[in-house]
Design a protein that fits this description.
about 230 residues; alpha+beta; Translation Initiation Factor IF3; Alpha-Beta Plaits; 4-stranded antiparallel sheet; 3-stranded antiparallel sheet; 4 helices; elongated
Length: about 230
């Protein structure tokens, strides 16, 4: 048996449901006023302290296995030369074998392998590169900042950027005739403008002793940007 409610009872029940029901999504959010976005940066010129050189050996001919043997011998020779210098780290890179063509007909094979050298000893690196050019070609040489030095610079610049952000926030608050502010959010971003000296060797020379490349470390611009939102307070 279904029991029907009197009109006033139904109205009372509807009112109670409205009072005690959960708030709808977004209903409890408070409007925000007096919020201002700010962005400041701290930069410094940091001297490059790590030299990275990439060299390669490339041979062409009709017999792929013979080219591979010759390439492997030259790369092994270069590795042994590099291992004699403790200040230099050596790493082999990609090894490629590909066909060569002339007028859409295969004429032979090309074998190539690269080597990467890394060091903070510029003099030793320059001398070793000069020796390795007896058999290898220089693809490129570039400078970079070591991770330790970059971390130290970034930590210092983060402190500077945050200090500058606080000063800017205080200035803005006073300009709007507010006594203080509340930090709502902040993002810290890092960027660097690399300006390495690039050296490229275009062709192998016939001389057994090539001169070592002249190298200049240069500097990079490291930048820390602090972007955030403040809320002015009375």
């Amino acid at each position: 048996m279904t029991r029907r409610l009197a009109p006033f009872q139904a109205a009372t029940l509807l009112m109670l449901c409205a009072v005690f029901s959960p708030a709808s999504a977004g209903e409890g959010e408070q409007p925000h006023y007096n919020r201002i976005n700010l962005s400041v940066s701290a930069t410094d010129e940091i001297g490059n302290d790590t030299l990275v050189a990439q060299l390669y050996i490339q041979k062409e001919g009709r017999v792929a296995s013979q080219l591979a043997d010759e390439t492997n011998r030259d790369i092994e020779w270069a590795i042994q030369q590099a291992k004699q210098v403790p200040a230099i780290t050596v790493q082999t890179l990609d090894y490629h074998t590909s066909p060569t063509y002339h007028k859409q007909s295969q004429t032979g094979w090309r074998v190539r392998q690269s080597l990467r050298l890394t060091s903070q000893d510029t003099v030793a690196m320059s001398q070793l590169i000069g020796e390795l050019q007896q058999r290898l070609l220089v693809d490129n040489i570039r400078y970079k900042i070591s991770q330790k030095k970059r971390d130290e610079a970034e930590n210092r610049l983060i402190t500077q950027a945050i200090t500058a952000f606080k000063e800017r926030a205080t200035l803005v608050s006073k300009a709007w005739e507010h006594t203080t502010y509340r930090l709502v959010r902040m993002d810290i971003n890092t960027s660097g403008s690399a300006m390495p000296r690039i050296y490229k060797q275009r062709a192998m020379m016939e001389s057994d002793a090539l001169s070592a490349p002249a190298l200049e470390a240069g500097k990079q611009t490291v930048r820390i940007t602090a972007t955030g939102t403040i809320e002015l307070q009375k």
